[in-house]
Amino acid sequence: MAERTYLQAISDGLRQEMRRDKRVFVIGEDVGVYGGAFKVTLGFQEEFGAWRVIDAPLSETAIVGGCTGAALMGMRPVAEMQFADFVSCAWDHLVTVAAKQFYRAGTPVPMVVRLPSGGGFSGGPFHSQNPESSFAHIPGLKCVCPATPEDAKGLLATAIEDPNPVLYFEHKHLYRRLKAEVPEERYTIPFGEARTHRVGEDISVITWGAMVHTADEAAEELAKEDVSVEVVDLRTVMPWDRKAVLASVEKTSKVLVLHEDTRTGGFGAEIAATIAEEAFESLDAPVKRIAAPDSPVPFSPPLEKAFIPQVETVASGLRELAAY
Amino acid sequence: MATGTIIDVVMPQMGVSVSEGTIVKWLKSEGETIEADEALLEISTDKVDTEVPSPGTGVVAKILVHEGETVDVGTKLAEIAPEGAGPAVAEPEPAVEPEPAVEPELAPEPATAAAAAEADAPSSAESPGPAAPAAPAVPAETPAPAAAGDSSENGKSFVSPVVARIAAEHGVDVGTIQGTGQGGRVTKKDILAFIESGPAPAPAAPPEAAPTEAEPVAPAAPTEPSAQPTAPPVIANAQPQAAGTGETLEPMNAMRRGIAEHMRRSLDTAAHVTSAIEVDMSKVVAIREKLKASYQKDYGVNPTYLAFVGRAAVDTLHDYPWINGELRDDQIVTRNYVNLGIAVELADGKGLIVPVIKNAEGLNLLGLARSITDIAARARDKKLLPDDVQGGTFTITNPGGYGTFHGTPVISQPQAGILGTYALVKRPWVVQDALGNDVLAIRPIMNITLTYDHRLVDGALAGRFLHDVREKLQSWGEDRY
Q1: Contact B237/B205 with Cβ under 8 angstroms?
Q2: pTM for the complete prediction?
Q3: Which residue among the candidates A127, A171, A173, A197 is catalytic per the annotation?
Q4: Complex ipTM above 0.90?
Q5: pLDDT tens per residue across span B81-109
Q6: May I ask the CATH class of domain B7-106?
Q7: Nearest residue on chain A to B179, judged by CA atoms?
Q8: Which CATH architecture has domain B255-480?
Q9: How close A242 gets to chain B, by Cα (Å)?
Q10: Domain A2-182 has CATH 3.40.50.720
Q11: Do A31 and A53 meet the contact criterion of CB atoms below 8 Å apart?
Q12: Do residues B146 and B159 lie in contact, with contact meaning Cβ atoms separated by under 8 Å?
């Protein structure tokens, strides 16, 4: 085990996959010579050559379209969107072609699209979004949102192995802030299995990505007030672990669904609805949601702080539930 | 009527704002015959309790919604099979059984029935009541349909799904548990602690057993906030709901809760001030004596003092639109009509309702007396429709029936005033004789109060209003019938 940042864990995982499987290649804007905007692929071109670490033109459509074709031909492409926000340009290839290819023709599209996502650094409306719920809504796509270095590495391996198009949302805010022990050998983490980040008795927080840590800090505060909060990290939003969520709700009977994406139509709504449908008789309080307001992500630091759910917001939401 | 096809009975629309109703009681069971328009069941909405007549003649084939359940307007409640449509009726129902979640509340139904029974005690049309002040026009706030849904005794009546389920599984009455949640709600923790504490063999516990230790049972303030600091006797182990020595606990029914909520809200809303005036009712008494027999004979109506006062008040309101008005946000609302609420006592002074006489300004003494008789009777018989208790603009309450001579009623929100009428008492009264000298006379005197919302109505205005009402009553002429 070595201590690795979230970003290093992704980089390690990707390198490991490329070393063990010649079909795996990387393509994206500035991923080669420059080593990627966030340096995830730093040194990759030296090791694997320009044919496996491809600097693409400034066209997400071309990148994802090319990857789809390559995957159909048996390759294992890993595309990088410089920022998750730019994936909109590739919507048609992802949603119309890649997501439906297997259903239509029975030919798998084993492709990974890496999406540096999330805010917290005044990136504004084009460099801060969390578009996972848009893609979770599309049958045929999988959405992964790791919250820890260990998960980042293990889930990336699973994503590359998976025969379907997988969107891998890596949270930029965690890149260098998060450091933890990560196994050096290769390992995979199955999709659709949540991880209990923190065990608690009184309230469940269902969340993923960077919000896992926000929730954890809030839970820490509530612990001082003698309220025991459980934090469930979904790890993958599609497929998502209903069983784990329902089990946690059954235990605590109060639940907060938390995400960094905007509120309306966010994936939290799906979770809340499922809880209402399937765990109604376990509820001791209304299902609560905390999410960003329905607005573009603001540039201004204080506005952005007001926009992204903060520890205090989450803590006061938890207090409301505790008092209910 | 019977065309040979099954007739559906649906939850009726009981007024524009009513979207659901609770089945209080089925008056017929499956298999019984029923005539068209014969009462089939009793329902309770958030406005009134009422009976639902059968839409046709036949046999009650199926009852689809159980007592205690709350369903939307339009929901099918039962099926009536026309007579002769016959035997097929009874059997094929298994598929249609009510939704599973309702099973448990079949048991607690007595409480619901009790609540309904509450509403039917009489109140004479003659004097709508020593009842308390202005009523919330509403018996209602139907108990939650969930299992054990009618346990609403402490704080909020809301029982969360998980608490309802646990209560049903353990056969616990949620109402007996002290809640620690918002507004006194019983939380999951509360009920689990209650169950864990066990039923506790009441007689076994000696008075001084574990004075403080025994209470962890229900977290936080298991007894009343007033809990005596000295180690109290008896409450120790018995039931965590803890009735003190000599105390009896009794659940609050929906009407009681509605009244409680409305009274509190009114006092929190309006700036209540009461002014009183003494009225020499000699002329009214004389005229009433004269009219009584003919009104009874010709119309079957009793010209009560309330009708006289009501008539005078409605007439006077024409000159005082603010007293017949309302504060709506930052606007003052006035009207060219008077919808007169009359507080009617129910059930031995327990509970009241305020049916409303619409457009009372258009009624003469006879019309008003007749309307009062009508609504009081319908209130007593639970025949009021939701719209009968809505839209009041001014209220009269008559707590004088038992001899009280003064009171300070609570305004029925969002109105601006409420008139109180009190006992008619013979008093020594200073009057002037024919020579202009002061002499003592015996006169029937009635105190009348106006309680008004000082946010809108000032004391001088209220005083003038009362003065004018008094003048009208004291100078009542036979031409003003």
Answers
A1: yes
A2: 0.50
A3: A127
A4: no
A5: 887 654 444 444 444 444 444 333 343 34
A6: mainly beta
A7: A324
A8: 2-Layer Sandwich (3.30)
A9: 19
A10: no
A11: yes
A12: yes
